[in-house]
Amino acid sequence: MNAKRLLHIVLPLSGIALVGLVWLVASQSVPDLPSPLRTWEESKLYLLKPLEKRGEMDQGIVLLAYYSLVRVSKGFLLGILLGTPLGLLLGMSKTLHRMFDPIIQILRPISPLAWLPLGLVIFRKSEPAALFAIAICSMWPTVINGAAGVRAIPQDYWNVARVLRLSPFRTFTKVVIPATLPYIFTGYRLSLGIAWLVIVASEMLTGTPGVGGFLWQEYNSLIYAHILLATITIGVIGFALDRLMGMAETRLRVT
Amino acid sequence: MAFIEASAVSKSFGTGPSARHVLHDVTLEVERGEFVSIVGFMGCGKSTLLNIITGLVPADAGEVRLGGDLVRGISQGAAIVFQNYSLLPWFSALENVRLAVAAAFPAWPRGRQADHARRYLEKIGLGSALHRRPSQLSGGMRQRVAIARAFATEPTILFLDEPFGALDALTRANLQQDLAQLCSSAERQVTTIMITNSVEEALLLSDRIVPMTRAPRATLGRPVGVAMARPRTAAQLLHDEDAVRVRTHVVESLTASVHRAPRLPPLIKSEASDASDTPLIAVPDRTEA
Ligand SMILES: Nc1ncnc2c1ncn2[C@@H]1O[C@H](COP(=O)(O)OP(=O)(O)OP(=O)(O)O)[C@@H](O)[C@H]1O
Ligand SMILES: [Mg+2]
Q1: What residues make up the domain containing B20?
Q2: For a Cys-Cys bond, which of B5, B180, B200, B214 suits B65, CB 3.0-4.6 Å?
Q3: B215 lines ligand 1 (CB under 6 A)
Q4: Do B82 and A156 touch (CB under 8 A)?
Q5: How far, in Å, CA of B190 to CA of B236, rounded?
Q6: Any idea what the CATH number is for the domain that residue B216 is in?
Q7: Is residue B143 part of a domain?
Q8: What's the pTM value of the predicted model, to 2 decimals?
Q9: Where are the domains of chain A?
Q10: Does B104 touch chain A (CB under 8 A)?
């Protein structure tokens, strides 16, 4: 039991160490790629004073992450606010599904890099354009999972609703919502993952402060260690977000 | 004219060579206040017939009338106990029943709805498991919740699809008594159609028993009345002359249908051939895997 638990900690750590090793080797042969140690030396300031604000982009890592997280939350909320009802509707109506499924399949693979310029054209400001791109890129898993969840409701439950003569509203709140909740939450988790992917691209293009904006600016200032700092930060936060949503998801699953 | 009338009902599933002609020309009449049991082998189309009578599923041919009106969808005052309980897993026992009560008596205040639901659960012996989810209940307890849910709506028509099918013999006997009690204590006149695969269960509870022949092309055999006084007990059924007569009739109709099967025109080759050498009562389960 204990050995097993140890393995759970040791194996992932060895994996990380191995990747670090690859990084170290690569940094020896690629002249511009900073080694792990140099990355640490040059990033110390941002990590050890995570809340210090020195300039618009020159801020502690926690502050930068906070800006990005706020932006991502807004875009994600907008996305699921649109995506949840859309998904449920598509799941309940075959006609609507036939009508909108093809266009969704076409819109879904469009990259945030393509949506952003369109957002800038429509909204003329970088912030709403970024939210637009995050929302429209991240809503699809919610739509698709919501629809799949409704379609997966067993006939038994529909029969119960009919036999009890539940009103459409009651059927919706007492049967459809609880039955699809696990699916919807899986959709939310995937959507949040995408929203976090989009944040970097949108901050890069719009030049707003945040982890992605910081990354792009440091690249332009030729401080390559900070690119790595930002990259690792993005990964760690993305991982944490996914874990949080995963926990919410398992708590919701009805046994 | 009978209260419930199903006339010349037929039903197939699928089309083309894979079609399964389940019900063929089924006719059934049930008087108001009567308790009728339909007895048949596994997979012979009992649930299909009940679903058509309740209005959950449309028939291919024939019609069902209730009080003279064509049945379209679930009728007001009807309650169904499904073969597989069909409780909502995200609600507790009490919430499952309360949802039914709220839908049946929307004018009542919430407190009264909850009290009513609780009373029916207590009546059937679940007073201590009110707040447990279906997944935390045993099969027998789930079945009780399903029965409480049906009775709590104070139905005038009750459809029971093998309400005790999944239970062990002891639990089954207990619940049969509870059901008999609930049926007789109801102040209203309740018309009941029960599906069962147990002749004894049918004898215990019904006014009339209808045997159902085997699938494919199942139809109903000649009904037989059960005149014994109530309440009936299992012991009494063993020796009662009337019970012996009814049992013989039902078992003979059922087994006759097994013998008759190979002589039917082979609608679908495979089905006709695999029905050809089935033994008498020990018929294998014909439901699809
Ligand atoms: N929706 C469906 N689609 C295809 N075939 C079906 C469908 N429902 C039932 N059948 C078939 O019709 C036949 C009768 O099914 P039904 O459920 O009515 O039997 P049953 O008498 O209630 O069986 P059991 O005693 O096992 O409950 C079965 O062979 C089944 O495979
Ligand atoms: Mg059945």
Answers
A1: 4-77+155-260
A2: B5
A3: yes
A4: yes
A5: 25
A6: 3.40.50.300
A7: no
A8: 0.81
A9: 1-32, 34-254
A10: yes
Chain A: residue nearest B136 by CA?
A255
Q: What strand order describes the sheet that includes B35-39? A: B78-81, B157-161, B191-196, B35-39, B208-211, B224-225
Decide whether any atom of ligand 1 lies within 6 Å of the B51 Cβ.
no
Cβ contact A60:A116 at 8 Å: no
Is B107 part of a structural domain of the chain?
A: no
Does residue B45 form part of some domain? Answer: yes
Q: Give contacts of B73 with chain A, Cβ < 8 Å.
A: 162
Count of domains in chain B? Answer: 1
**Beta strand residue intervals within B86-207, DSSP E:** 157-161, 191-196
The answer to the question of residue B226 being in a domain is yes
Q: Which CATH superfamily is domain A34-254 in?
A: MetI-like (1.10.3720.10)
pLDDT tens readout for residues B23-39: 988 999 999 989 999 99
pLDDT tens for the 289 residues of chain B, in order: 789 999 999 999 988 888 888 898 899 999 998 999 999 888 889 999 999 999 999 999 999 999 889 988 898 889 999 998 899 999 999 999 999 999 999 999 999 999 999 999 998 888 999 999 999 999 889 988 999 999 899 999 999 999 887 777 887 888 888 788 777 776 678 899 999 988 989 999 999 999 988 767 778 888 888 888 877 888 888 888 888 888 888 888 888 766 555 444 444 444 434 443 333 343 344 444 3
Amino acid at A72: V
